[in-house]
Amino acid sequence: MSPAAEPVPDKPTRREQILAAAAELFARHGFHGVGIDDIGSAVGISGPALYRHFRSKDAMLGEMLTAISEVLLDGGQTRVDSARGPHDTLGDLVRFHVDFALDNPALITVQERNLGNLTDPDRRKVRALQRRYVEIWVEVIRAAVPTTEEPTARAAAHAVFGLINSTPHSRHLDRAQMADLLTGMALTALTHAPL
Amino acid sequence: MSPAAEPVPDKPTRREQILAAAAELFARHGFHGVGIDDIGSAVGISGPALYRHFRSKDAMLGEMLTAISEVLLDGGQTRVDSARGPHDTLGDLVRFHVDFALDNPALITVQERNLGNLTDPDRRKVRALQRRYVEIWVEVIRAAVPTTEEPTARAAAHAVFGLINSTPHSRHLDRAQMADLLTGMALTALTHAPL
DNA sequence: CAGCGCGGTTAGCGACCACTAACCGTCATC
DNA sequence: GATGACGGTTAGTGGTCGCTAACCGCGCTG
């Protein structure tokens, strides 16, 4: 067949394969619980070959977490930019985060658990991105529920992240049901609870 | 002053000191990210002295997590035993878990993140205890919101755990406000969302 | 006061881990 | 058809980690 003409949805590059495998392993065993050889053999190569693609193990985690944070921030900003009204925007934001969590359970887990294993510069960068993402949520929450104080909105946003990110720890429902459940609970908690 | 007559609330034993320090460290750096020497120096002794109190590093984590699971299960059972009505019982359960999470952020974090670092027998034991705790929640949820299917109730329980356990990651409010916020969000999500 | 258990100490051992060194086959290009 | 970038390989190295060994001072108790 003709080369490079198939409807292949972007064959993942080796770097991406490695990051995906590493994310799975980091999520299951923790950053320090995974060896360089474990990651290598998870993608069919062995051990030090990884250093053809990454400068260090720390760099893998750093790239992984900054990528996640950028995707979240970017997606959040997009939802806000196409705002139709405060309540719809909040709904879009919730649905976006729910979809991301359901589609990337390993990444969500790593971001939640392994922030402390980043190098200092990487952690600063990721923290900054995360802060901007939270600020988006704070503004949208306060637009939808105007009586909410800013610190309360921030705490509520974190609580909703916890609710949604709990996904990886429970697989009792199928994807669609889970999405509806989490979206409903998150929106109800944000808009009907006494904040 | 007279020796051993003050209102000291049970001076913590050495084992307890060690477990508390280890919990803090495990929460911050992950199980494999903490060395035996780190734990030792956190309680003022150094390194291998820990082996006078625990058989291994694994045993510390094991004892820590089984203790947490037993406290939760026990507290949950107590709340159910003194039930006055479905809604009150659910409220008691939520408030109990919120209090525990706010008072023991490190323990909650360790239980969430480091279950995978337990030895197989320890993990089985902890999992069994956790399952029983979740089943308490499932029954109470279904009593308070009778239209809820069992798998949905289980997923909702996990989601609420995620919401409440998000506490350690956000300290924007003082304890009382945080307790009210989390309790309100959890109860609203459970009883007013379309489960 | 001899004996001993309790809870410390330091030194060291074997395993493992992140990473480097040195080497090699496969292409694409000139 | 030589060249060199690319992405692999195996062997090895320095450092760290969990744990054991050997030793020791203190406070009970018979």
Automatic annotation (TrEMBL), chains A, B:
GO biological process, one term: negative regulation of DNA-templated transcription
Domain (HTH tetR-type): residue spans on this chain: 12-72
Keyword Transcription: yes
Annotated GO MF terms: DNA-binding transcription factor activity; transcription cis-regulatory region binding
A Pfam family annotated for this UniProt entry: TetR_C_24
Keyword Membrane: no
Annotated protein name in UniProt: AcrR family transcriptional regulator
Location of the DNA-binding region in this protein: 35-54
SUPFAM superfamilies per UniProt: Homeodomain-like, Tetracyclin repressor-like, C-terminal domain
Keywords associated with the record: DNA-binding, Transcription, Transcription regulation
PROSITE patterns linked: HTH_TETR_2
